Structure formats: structure tokens, C-alpha cells
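Service request form, structural biology core

Requester: graduate student, group of Dr. S.
Request type: structure prediction, single chain
Budget code: on file
Notes: please return the result as C-alpha cells.

Sequence provided:
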Amino acid sequence: LLKQYLRDLPQPLMTHHLFSQFLEASKQNIENPLPQRIAALSKVLDQLPPCSRRTLGVILRLLYRLSWNEHRTKMGATNLATVVAPNI
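Core staff response, request fulfilled:
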């Protein structure tokens, strides 16, 4: 249901015009310390429209809570990212 909702949105939560900035922030983050990685991604996320930012926050909190039950559901962070991320 979540994947269908995300596919039916008129534009992706992480909008097309910020796509290259998200990619750049992710590429640079591999070699940087954690605080710098968080700052780079936060800078891009702050540019999202408010409704997309709020919706993304709710979805990420949901996915985080789902990953708590990995021992029962087999849906840890990696599996959830594999299944949901392409739709975000």
C-alpha cells in the first residue's frame, strides 16, 4: 500500500530538481565523517517543499519502527531500503 501511494504521487517526494544534489551529497559522503555526511544530506533535505519533507519524515519514522522487529519480520533496514527506496 505504501509503495502504491508513493508511485501515485504527482511528483516524487525527493523531487526531480534535487535529484542531482541528492546524488552528489551521497557520493561525497562515503569518505567524510558522519557529522559532515549528515550536514550534506540535511542541506539538500531542507530544500524540499514542506509537504514533501513532512511526508518523508513520517515514512522514515515508520520504516525505522518497522526495522525494530527485524528478528520477527526479516525486514531490517537493508531489506526495507531495497523494497521502498526506489519508490521514494
